[in-house]
UniProtKB/TrEMBL annotation:
<dbReference type="InterPro" id="IPR036291">
    <property type="entry name" value="NAD(P)-bd_dom_sf"/>
</dbReference>
<feature type="domain" description="CoA-binding">
    <location>
        <begin position="48"/>
        <end position="141"/>
    </location>
</feature>
<dbReference type="InterPro" id="IPR003781">
    <property type="entry name" value="CoA-bd"/>
</dbReference>
<protein>
    <submittedName>
        <fullName>CoA-binding protein</fullName>
    </submittedName>
</protein>
<dbReference type="Pfam" id="PF13380">
    <property type="entry name" value="CoA_binding_2"/>
</dbReference>
Amino acid sequence: MSGANGISIEGAGAACAVGGSAGGGTGSDGTDGRSWQGPTAPERLAILRRARSIAIVGASANPARASYFVATYLLSSSPYDVYFVNPRAEAILGHPAYDSLADLPVVPDIVDVFRKDADLPGVAREAVAVGAKALWLQLGSWNEEAAAIAEEAGLDVVMDRCVKIEHARFHGGLHLAGFNTGEISSRKQRLA
């Protein structure tokens, strides 16, 4: 199914997902094996409102990657100072890329993570070590060990949510397909 302008609606969140997936599978007992409870929508809004800077760990200069899509949005449509962490890149979107969170010129308020599951506890420890205020794991990322590490140190934690989608949702820029259409209207969009 496509929305106005021919944008696919079915996988809109997949653009923000780590590895292109929008979430984990279910266990043999029919549950998703998740016991951690994330912050409510008002709590996520409060995290975003308190933040002044976001560090994207696992940022990519490849336009096909979810982190690039999110970084483009944050740089153009949000008030945050955005920093990129990728030891294999020199610059991303015209901004310097840093080897680690410890190398950043500031302490980031939010550490937004685009890394594979096995790396998440280490990133959580690094976020704690630099004094970040929140650990945000993108769509498709869920690691209760990483959440426990961050929460034990007093960080707010969000998992399996896209910071771009959440910011746009709370600030009026979320269209049905997850994109800002630039059009203000009270009419429901017609599907083509």
